[in-house]
Amino acid sequence: xSILEVSNLQVVYGHVTAVWDVSLGVDRGELIAVVGPNxxxxxxLINAISGLVPIQNGSIRLFGxxxxxxxxxxxxxxxxxxxxxxxxxxxxxxxxENLRLGSYTCISRADVSxxxxxxxxxxxxxxxxxxxxxxxxxxxxxxxxxxGRALMANPRLLLLDEPSLGLAPKIVLEVFxxxxxxxxxxTPILIVEQxxxxxxxxxDRGYVLENGRMALSGxxxxxxxxxxxxxxxxxxx
Length: 237
Description:
Layout: E1 2-13, E2 16-27, E3 31-35, H1 42-50, E4 57-62, E5 65-66, H2 72-77, E6 80-83, H3 95-101, H4 109-120, H5 124-128, H6 139-152, E7 157-161, H7 169-184, E8 189-193, H8 196-202, E9 205-210, E10 213-219, H9 220-224, H10 227-232
Parallel strand pairs: 3-8, 3-9, 6-7, 7-8
Antiparallel strand pairs: 1-2, 1-4, 4-5, 9-10
Helix pairs in contact: 3-6, 4-6
């Protein structure tokens, strides 16, 4: 079943077009990757899907529902949940307080406690640091809090914007292992990333965005062996 359908999307800032006529889809249980260089329009694309930036043309449908007139906070309530680039935590609040903010649509305390337990499964380190102030965490731990906060919203589709940005290679591996665990539990994921190799290794399908346009698409494994991808992004020919 199709969860997300993006058709002929165009995003414009003033006189500059950031995304040109982009179409993509996410089906149930899939991990879909959008990769490409810095400035390719990846964040503009994911922010348009989330409702954080307006679209000039095209359509976005979630479970068949047209989101054109649905504001960002109501998209989140429908299950379209984003973990943003740069983490954007509340630095003076504890790990647990940051996580609980993700469950703002949940009324039952029991449900919130259950969601915390579910978050601590892929991120056991957060359970150890649940009372620690977020600003005192390492960059990798902060990224885990950001991912956990998104999971607290019980996403029907999880959007990840550059989750490996600014992290050391060893921490990047931890973050991608956690993303794989989330995916295995059945949460569909759309991820935009500059880390082409590791993202495509996880992805069922991938899209390559260059200069705001869709340059390539296909199975993640096929894109990894594509000559253009190997030359331009992987440093091999």
